[in-house]
């Protein structure tokens, strides 16, 4: 040992005397080994990713070994005041999108362990596809909107009048919570309650006080605090948070329910004053379902689409049509309902068997539709009309189709020049939701991918071609998520649409 190394082990006594400590064995110190740091609790169940809509609450949970532990939840690594139990309940708000949550668990002896981080995805919309007459919109869980198909009226909102053969993103200032598509126009309800509109405006359907066409989204002036939208061919309804009903657009048949035939180029209140659970608009008629299950209708009844016993022209104000209704859907010249007894009924034009009652006879009054093609005894979830065809969907996601099939819009594997008068099974497909357009059909699956079939001129199926598809075909690249890994896609409301969040299940 040299002196310099030995001096490294010198220390001063309190008296100031220098003490030299010489150690054998290469100069190792006799200082005691440090006490090991306390070991933190083992986390047996870590927090998992969560997803929710603004206004919902989500819960993060942790399970750790041992007793007497204390807990501190963290947001992006920073302690959350008051969050000190095994569960952290978080009201979902926009500012928390993509935030990371973890928890620090401390044992009584002082050791601590911090869990892995779990993300929060703030969602805005039920993932759906909405078919217009010859263009289509889709909305993802994150409120992104895509459009494709015919664009000659600017209905795609892409600042031109060109068709798109694949889904293309529409630029909006905020996430959307709902989209609707008419004959040649489109609407989007944004997360702040405003409505944006674009496309054909000859009848004032954009609600901006003019009849000027517009190929890009713009706010409907003065229309705020909206929670639900519905579009027909050329007219629209909106429900505000206070329950009031606002209407605008084409009104030649009285489909706005205002007791006249004058178009409205700006939204006006319809003072019906009935609490609503569902709205659907056809070409020239409108259907409302009250919270008590009454079905009300107005507009054209020339083909029996209001379900009244004879053709009596137009109804300029809302008339009670029937009761015991869960949901109603209108498209062109016929209407369908899902009744509280679980059965489907239809009325109106039926020349192609779209009412599925086994005949091609137009009906002036509600007739029970067939449910063949679905598992016997299964619960019917929705009835979805297109222009001349109809799909039925049960709670297991099975689909049966009836009506016009010239372009393969029934999805049965081959087109047909003869009408299908009763529902036939669409095999090999389990859907989460379904929408039908003029001569095309769309389904989104439990994994939030999309399939389409039927007429494909101008790329309205979104598969990059103009080839008609008689069987469901994947829409490449269109994914209606995301939802975090390990989180199930958001559960839909039942048929209807005007629920607490006003998110429709089927269009």
TrEMBL record:
Range of residues in the leader sequence: 1-25
PROSITE patterns documented for this protein: IG_LIKE, PROKAR_LIPOPROTEIN, RCC1_2, RCC1_3
Lipoprotein is among the record's keywords: no
Source superkingdom: Bacteria
Record domain Ig-like: where: 41-121
Ranges for region Disordered: 488-507
Origin species: Candidatus Geothrix skivensis
Name used for this protein in its record: Ig-like domain-containing protein
Keyword flag Amino-acid biosynthesis: no
Matching Pfam families: RCC1 (PF00415)
């Amino acid at each position: 040992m040299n002196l310099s190394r030995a001096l490294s082990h010198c220390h001063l006594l309190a008296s100031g005397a220098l003490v030299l400590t010489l150690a054998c064995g290469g100069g190792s110190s006799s200082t005691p080994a440090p006490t090991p740091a306390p070991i933190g609790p083992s986390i047996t169940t870590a927090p998992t990713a969560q997803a929710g809509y603004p206004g919902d609450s989500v819960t993060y949970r942790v399970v750790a070994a041992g007793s007497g532990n204390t807990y501190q939840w963290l947001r992006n690594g920073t302690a959350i005041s008051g969050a000190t139990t095994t569960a952290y309940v978080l009201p979902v708000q926009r500012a928390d999108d993509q935030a990371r949550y973890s928890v620090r668990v401390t044992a009584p002896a002082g050791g601590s362990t911090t869990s892995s981080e779990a993300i929060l995805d703030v969602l805005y919309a039920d993932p759906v596809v909405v078919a217009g007459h010859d263009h289509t919109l889709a909305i993802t869980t994150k409120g992104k909107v895509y459009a494709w198909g015919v664009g000659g009226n600017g209905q795609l909102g892409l600042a031109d009048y060109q068709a798109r053969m694949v889904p293309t993103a529409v630029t909006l200032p905020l996430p959307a919570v709902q989209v609707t598509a008419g004959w040649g126009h489109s609407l989007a309800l944004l997360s702040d309650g405003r409505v944006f509109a674009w496309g054909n405006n000859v009848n004032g359907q954009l609600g901006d006080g003019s009849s000027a066409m517009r190929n890009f989204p713009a706010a409907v002036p003065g229309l705020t605090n909206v929670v639900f939208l519905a579009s027909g061919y050329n007219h629209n309804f909106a429900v505000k948070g206070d329950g009031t009903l606002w209407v605008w657009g084409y009104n030649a048949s009285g489909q706005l329910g205002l007791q006249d035939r004058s178009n409205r180029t700006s939204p006006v209140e319809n003072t019906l004053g009935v609490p609503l659970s569902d709205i659907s608009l056809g070409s020239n008629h409108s259907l409302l379902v009250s919270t008590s299950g009454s079905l009300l209708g107005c507009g054209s009844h020339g083909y029996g689409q209001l379900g009244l016993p004879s053709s009596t022209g137009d109804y300029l104000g809302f008339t009670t049509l029937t009761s015991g209704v869960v949901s109603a859907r209108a498209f062109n010249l016929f209407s369908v309902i899902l009744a509280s007894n679980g059965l489907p009924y239809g009325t109106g034009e039926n020349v192609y068997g779209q009412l599925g009652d086994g005949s091609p006879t137009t009906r002036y009054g509600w007739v029970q539709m067939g449910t063949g093609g679905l598992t016997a005894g299964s619960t019917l979830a929705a009835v979805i009309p297109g222009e001349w065809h109809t799909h039925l969907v049960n709670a297991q996601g099975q689909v049966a189709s009836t009506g016009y099939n010239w372009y393969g819009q029934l999805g049965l594997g081959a087109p047909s020049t003869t009408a299908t008068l009763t529902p036939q099974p669409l095999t090999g497909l389990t859907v989460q939701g379904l929408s039908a357009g003029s001569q095309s059909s769309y389904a989104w699956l439990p994994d939030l991918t999309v399939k389409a079939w039927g007429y494909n001129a101008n790329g309205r199926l979104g598969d990059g071609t103009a080839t008609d598809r008689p069987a469901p075909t994947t829409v490449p690249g269109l994914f209606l998520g995301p939802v975090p890994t390990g989180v199930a896609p958001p559960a839909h409301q039942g048929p209807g649409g005007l629920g607490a969040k006003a998110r429709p299940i089927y269009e």
